[in-house]
């Protein structure tokens, strides 16, 4: 991506404010689904913050409420000290949002989309044109400025949505799965752009299914599951909890109940497969010795691939144990 010139609208402060404060936020839909269960969350100015969780956890609902696209049931939200209920327009003016779904007007040109978006925030037309050029160039879309959006590829439309979110130069950028469906080369160039914006003082909140993405970009993280925040810590502390690896073992003989292996947590996948958690302190030779002692013979082994799934599973299990204790 091209470098973005420093923005005068990104405030440089000696004492950081809280960019976002959420208190007891709750959302119950008409069908009775409680999507958010009184969550609390604070994001400091200048932070690069990850909000992670499985599908249906409540991430998109939370972003929808913060950006005034969804009505909350109860709770309080403030953006840079502006209460979203009492000072909605001021709070919204600080926010740029890139939603999960592509929602550009596909019958307008790229430049027109950005100029019109800037106009919604009161940016004078001459300045809006200059900013449209700046952000279209930064996202490698300037040569497509006069093309209507429907002619763009999916990845280009996502980049156009990021440019649209930036054109009024918000202080808080919210990115909901911004790299979904984008090839790895474009994804990494988008990462570079996000780092650049954050380095210049912009607060960024990112939701993603890619732990690698969150790990690479974000300093702090909250993990949401079934409408509750189950973890809120630094990225380094959360990732340090990945102290185990999960192996899927295919057994030569069928088994019908979970084997008890001393020192290991075991799950039965089916009659011929088990999952075994191995901590960093344990070696595989000891594991195979334990299996052999228990009369289990392995025909093949593979690593369970999703570190994010492992992280969720461990945190959810721990929180469940704490609540039932």
Describe the structure using short key phrases.
single chain, 325 residues, alpha/beta, Rossmann fold, Alpha-Beta Plaits, 2 domains, four-stranded antiparallel sheet, 27% strand
Describe the protein:
By secondary structure, this protein is α/β, with parallel strands linked by helices. The chain has 2 domains: 18-239, Rossmann fold (3-Layer(aba) Sandwich), CATH 3.40.50.300; 244-324, Alpha-L RNA-binding motif (Alpha-Beta Plaits, 2-Layer Sandwich), CATH 3.30.70. Helices cover 33% and strands 27% of the residues. The chain is built from 10 helices and 14 strands. The strands form 3 sheets. The chain has a 6-stranded mixed beta sheet, sandwiched between helices. It has a 4-stranded antiparallel beta sheet with strand order 2-1-4-5. Strand 1 (18-28) and strand 2 (34-44) form a beta hairpin. The termini are far apart. Residues 7-13 have low confidence and may be disordered.
């Amino acid at each position: 991506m091209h470098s973005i010139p420093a923005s005068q609208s990104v405030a440089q402060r000696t004492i950081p404010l809280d960019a976002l404060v959420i208190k007891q936020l709750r959302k119950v839909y008409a069908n009775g689904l409680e999507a958010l269960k009184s969550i609390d969350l604070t994001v400091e100015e200048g932070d690069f913050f990850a909000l992670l969780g499985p599908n249906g956890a409540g991430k998109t609902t939370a972003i929808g409420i913060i950006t005034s696209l969804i009505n909350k049931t109860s709770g309080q939200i403030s953006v840079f000290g502006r209460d979203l209920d009492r000072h909605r327009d001021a709070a919204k003016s600080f926010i740029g949002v890139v939603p999960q779904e592509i929602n550009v007007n596909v019958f307008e040109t790229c430049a027109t989309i950005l100029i019109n978006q800037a106009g919604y925030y009161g940016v004078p037309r001459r300045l809006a044109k200059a900013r449209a050029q700046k952000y279209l160039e930064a996202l490698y879309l300037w040569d497509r400025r006069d093309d209507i959006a429907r002619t763009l590829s999916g990845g280009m439309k996502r980049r156009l949505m990021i440019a649209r979110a930036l054109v009024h130069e918000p202080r808080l950028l919210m990115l909901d799965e911004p790299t979904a469906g984008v090839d790895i080369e474009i994804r990494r160039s988008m990462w570079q752009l996000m780092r650049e914006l954050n380095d210049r003082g912009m607060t960024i909140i990112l939701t993603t299914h890619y732990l690698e993405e969150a790990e690479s970009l974000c300093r702090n993280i909250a993990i949401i599951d079934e409408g509750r925040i189950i973890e809120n810590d630094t990225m380094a502390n959360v990732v340090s909890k990945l102290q185990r690896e999960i192996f899927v073992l295919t057994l030569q003989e069928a088994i019908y109940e979970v084997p008890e292996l001393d020192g290991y947590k075991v799950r039965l996948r089916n009659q011929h497969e088990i999952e075994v958690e191995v901590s960093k302190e344990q070696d595989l030779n000891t594991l195979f010795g334990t299996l052999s002692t228990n009369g289990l013979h392995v025909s093949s082994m593979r690593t369970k691939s999703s570190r994010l799934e492992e992280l969720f599973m461990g945190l959810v299990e721990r929180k469940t144990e704490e609540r039932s204790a």
